[in-house]
Specification:
Blueprint lengths: L6 H20 L19 E6 L17 E11 L4 E6 L16 E5 L6 E7 L14 E4 L4 E10 L11 E2 L4 E4 L1
Antiparallel strand pairs: 1-2, 2-7, 3-6, 3-9, 4-5, 4-8, 5-7
């Protein structure tokens, strides 16, 4: 079988292919620029945790007849750099009748007799002169790292009405920012 080629059509095809190839090579290219805006913000964020304020054995008729029973605990906070606020401590679950946020009258309750209490105080300083309360609290400034504040506790001396047993209370500690 013989195939006939039409020379004029073949030439036209070759010339067309060359023109298209040349046009693709010489076609101008364009580049456009655009700016992409990038932004972020950092809000104040904090975490807070506590370590137990655990008093040893209270001896109302011996060692603690004339001396308060002392103990230490802790409040650890981690807050964004540049944040600030106050760490406040509630009155406790068993506060006295005249207790308030600014003047807390804290008491631990006996585990078996809910009518028996052991009065105590919580302070923000080692001299035990600044009561840690819920009105103003203790100021902090965020550093981005964990910061631990010592909680200084004191069970009032001479509480001879306290009965034998275990006493406890729960304080809510909040960080306001």
């Amino acid at each position: 079988m013989k195939t006939k080629f039409n020379q004029s059509k073949l030439k036209l095809a070759i010339v067309s292919a060359m023109l298209l190839g040349t046009a693709a090579i010489t076609a101008p290219t364009y580049a456009l620029d655009a700016n992409l805006s990038v932004s972020a913000s950092i809000g104040t964020a904090c975490t807070i945790s506590t370590s137990t304020l655990a008093f040893s054995m209270y001896d109302a008729v011996g060692a603690n007849a004339s001396a308060d029973l002392l103990a230490e605990g802790g409040v650890t906070s981690t807050c964004s750099i540049g944040s600030s606020g106050n760490i406040k401590m509630g009155q406790g679950s068993n506060s006295g009748a005249d207790s308030s946020d600014s003047t807390p009258l804290r008491r631990m309750v006996n585990g078996t007799d809910a009518t028996k209490f052991l009065s105590y105080s919580v302070y923000s300083d080692s001299a035990r002169s600044s009561v840690w309360e819920n009105a103003t609290g203790v100021a902090y400034t965020g550093t981005g790292s964990a910061a631990t504040l010592t909680v200084y506790g004191s069970v009032t001396q001479g509480q001879v009405e306290a009965v034998v047993g275990s006493y406890s209370d729960t304080l809510v500690v909040a960080i306001n920012y």
